[in-house]
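Lab meeting, item 3. Inverse folding demo.
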């Protein structure tokens, strides 16, 4: 409410006078609206990015855990059959419980230096769900005074990028497991 006393105009708590002498209420300016939109956009994009990268890390860790389980299962099954010397064949082991086939040596990981691949080639392809893993099984015999030490090596790899077909050169992420076995 406006009221005049003499030559001055007084304002009450409702508003102020614009250049034309009309009262108006203070409002949100276009700059404040644009700042609000910018802040909210950044918050939404940040939350979406966080969710995307969280899901991606979960998928990568799930693949690594599965590769570790495959390597452990292959190595323990191999140890249960007596270890190195190339006599073990995971393709004919009924207790392994994996969908395992022969793989070409170009797709499977290479064994460590001075290690010998298993007699049947030592390169395998394991399919679990919709993911393909490649495995290499090798051993090394070290003569010792008290007997032989055998080092069993199982390397499991999987493609980092799932959208690239298996028959192309791609980057694989490795999981390596080595165990020491004493034989007499």
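The presenter then showed the designed sequence:
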């Amino acid at each position: 409410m406006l009221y005049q006393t003499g030559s001055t105009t007084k304002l009450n708590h409702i508003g102020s006078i614009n250049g034309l002498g009309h009262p108006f209420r203070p409002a949100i300016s276009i700059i404040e609206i644009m700042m609000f939109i910018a802040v909210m956009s950044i918050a939404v994009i940040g939350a979406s990015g966080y969710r995307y990268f969280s899901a991606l890390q979960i998928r990568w860790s799930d693949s690594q855990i599965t590769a570790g389980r495959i390597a452990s299962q292959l190595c323990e099954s191999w140890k249960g059959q007596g270890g190195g010397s190339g006599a073990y064949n995971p393709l004919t082991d009924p207790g392994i419980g994996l969908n395992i086939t022969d793989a070409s040596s170009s797709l499977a990981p290479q064994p460590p230096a001075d290690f010998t691949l298993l007699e049947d080639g030592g390169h395998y392809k394991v399919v679990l769900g919709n993911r393909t893993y490649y495995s290499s099984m090798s051993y090394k015999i070290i003569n010792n005074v008290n007997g032989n030490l055998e080092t069993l090596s199982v390397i499991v790899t999987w493609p980092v990028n799932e959208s690239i077909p298996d028959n192309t050169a791609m980057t694989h992420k490795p999981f390596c497991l080595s165990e020491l076995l004493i034989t007499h």
